[in-house]
């Protein structure tokens, strides 16, 4: 008789539905736990007490008016990139090529600024910049989409490769246009004439923020209330269903990636024409990848993305303030950001599933 | 003058980290996990080894290094560091079923940050009295080639002039290829990657296979980082020096159509492509070098597209690549 069937003590079931309040409680607990761990790590590294660490983080992000504006500007750019990637993710197309699409947009803008500066009036140059950078981003985004549509090529890997091809293209043109020759960088473009510099609205930070707001609202409406948005959602849920109801999956993939790349190109335009006035291979600073996480953390909801991108930028600006204050390496920010991401990624499990512990525990022999 | 005998060893030295990375990623992907955290894992592997040997070199007076410990300590540290990264990835994606792309990218952010942070702050944190991390003594043990290599002429230079980790890389790749193709374990692993539901129904422990293969994969990839810093870079850590080799390793997995033994030659080919720009004529136009650096990525993209065009069954990615398995999901 003595044979005992080993039964697991718990099992995992999918939650049918969870109230928004509960979901956010879980997320906030995860973020607090992550912050606690970050504080402990920072304490070990710096020997400072946690409260002054958080004061330093806050100061780094919002300490002065200028810092606040810069933080908001960073948030705006990251938000635009994340929004750009979102429609692709919603149809389960893993566009990790944001980096390349931003670079191509920036490259196109820089090309207009450099080659057309003396030939055309400023307004025309700016219009050409806008058109060409959006176009360049869109082209860079649509190439992997065409491969996907025609031959079902794995998009994660092809967009990844496109990033590096774009990086090298930028590196190539950096040397072609370098000023002065041999310096290996372009420097500020049109420093005296300011041709192609996007106009300042109010102050020099506000333009990106306004564009980000417009894109956020636009994307929200596009995804939620338009036919295109609905088609994206159906394709993302099930390609077979989409085909069955007569949606051309290939068409949706290509169209959505055109849009995704175009908005990335727009971010590149802002980076080159509005903020840095130069181009380097690292101008997007990994935000094409960070955008993937921002978008996913917000569950592809454009409005929630405002908060997730703010959280990421807040932490990274704050952490870089800590590293300056304690003479640590700037990469400290990446570690803290990574930890927070792990916690948030992990906590999604508890939102989607629940663990059911067996009720008759301890009465196994019954 | 272009000399093949001089070129090949340099290509191999470039190729070895890629081979470690791609072998590790291949067995990871065979279990259906697309680990985009490999670049981060390789950084962690490298810096863990550096930390281990840094403290070892600090603890003994110079010149008194014990050869066994000088190799053993960094090796174990690198393996443990990358194993922890692997466990983290598995815990998040297999146990908690988090999205693999997002987890992988977060791991890359974290890993590169971790490497650069400790690379830049280790001296300050340890309070050591040295200007920079330069582990030349340890590195000498790692890059020691066979004693008769220098006497064997061109043959020695092309085949025997490498540190022991280079040969380890090739052996690991061969073992992985054998295990994947010829053994029951390999068959089960491939089944898990192709169709976890069917594998589960056949009584294969899907979770166990995913965990073990991903962790092993990370450990192998971590060795690539260790080889880079200890052998290729002569024990000198400099931030971001490892560069985008991690992504190139992932690209190599596609290029080798998920076969580690093909990886041996292709990694050397990639290593060659990676440094080809140094040899191609560009005259006064240094900008062309930047275009030449594009070649490995374009080649990978072309291979990726061609394999998907031909649509041959044997050349496809594992079918469940990138998706998580939950038994109760329909």
Walk me through what this model shows.
The complex is a heterodimer of chains A (366) and B (330). By secondary structure, chain A is mostly helical. Chain A folds into 2 domains: 1-48 and 330-366, no CATH class; 77-307, no CATH class. Chain A has helices spanning 20-46, 50-62, 65-90, 98-115, 122-151, 155-176, 206-225, 227-237, 239-244, 249-276, 287-297, 302-325, 332-352, and strands at residues 10-14, 353-357. In chain A, strands 1-2 form a two-stranded antiparallel sheet. The longest helix of chain A is centred in the middle third of the chain and has 30 residues, at 122-151. The two termini of chain A are 13 Å apart. With 330 residues, chain B is mainly alpha-helical. Chain B is built from 14 helices and no strands. In chain B, helix 5 crosses helix 10. The radius of gyration of chain B is 20 Å and the shape is globular. The interface between A and B is large, with 55 and 60 residues.
Between the first and last Cα atoms of chain A, what is the distance in angstroms?
Answer: 13 Å
What is the end-to-end distance of chain B? 63 Å
- Tally of domains of chain A: 2
In N-to-C order, the SSE pattern of chain B is: HHHHHHHHHHHHHH
Give the helix level of chain B as a range of percent. Answer: over 70%
Most residues in contact: chain pair:
A-B, 55 and 60 residues
Q: Taking Cα atoms only, what radius of gyration of chain A do you get, to the nearest Å? A: 24 Å
Structural classification of chain B:
mainly alpha
The number of helical runs of chain B is: 14
Helix content of chain A: over 70%
Percent of residues of chain A in beta strands? under 5%
The assigned structural class of chain A equals mainly alpha
Low-confidence stretches of chain A: none
Alpha-carbon Rg of chain B, integer: 20 Å
Give the DSSP E fraction of chain B (strand runs of 2 or more residues).
under 5%
Quick check: average pLDDT of chain A? 82
H/E series of chain A: EHHHHHHHHHHHHHE
The counted number of beta strands of chain B is 0
Shape call of chain B: globular
Mean residue pLDDT of chain B? 82
